[in-house]
Specification:
Number of domains: 2
Structural class: alpha/beta
Order of helices and strands: HEEHEEHHHE
Strand content: 5-15%
Number of helices: 5
CATH topology of the largest domain: DNA polymerase, domain 1
Strand order of the largest sheet: 2-1-3
Helix content: 25-40%
Shape: elongated
CATH class of the largest domain: Mainly Alpha
Number of strands: 5
Radius of gyration: 23 Å
Distance between the termini: 65 Å
Amino acid sequence: MAELSRSQLAVYGAIAVALLLIGARAVRGEEQAAGPAPASAAPAAAGGFELSSSGGGDVVVDVAGAVRRPGVYRLPGGSRVVDAVQRAGGATPEGVIEAVNRAARLTDGQQIVIPAEGVAGSPEAAASGPVSLGAATAEQLETIDGIGPVTAQDILEFRDQHGGLASVEQLDEVSGIGPATMKSLREGLQP
């Protein structure tokens, strides 16, 4: 094979640099489209690339309810509920942030609902409508047909272990919940 001249090497080098810059700009564009990085993200490294020490891939979560900017957000794997709420602008003044486990790890596809005072799922309105699955207390769960103290506690532990629940259907995985109880849960809970 013929040896490359200096001018050919310079051209190939310039093409390689251009491709790297285009790739870096595309990556940076995706990050900007997802919104600003949460406060818990690692600082940007030289060259604009962000390194994460949390491991794993990103998670996509839906933050709803009494937050300033409800929506779907992409966060680094290992993020917590508090990170998602912060990404959504924090709770509104009427939001009952204490109703959710802010320390729970996020799971891909999870919905985090911050209830508002006087809205279903908050302590004041437990008996007036469906209970928010993400905010339900043991007492609120016990108001649903077929749920006693033990099952209510099992549901809360399952929710905490899995960083919340994306749907009522996930409760089918809780020990002691059968088809009849699932029917009551679907009627008495909202995601």
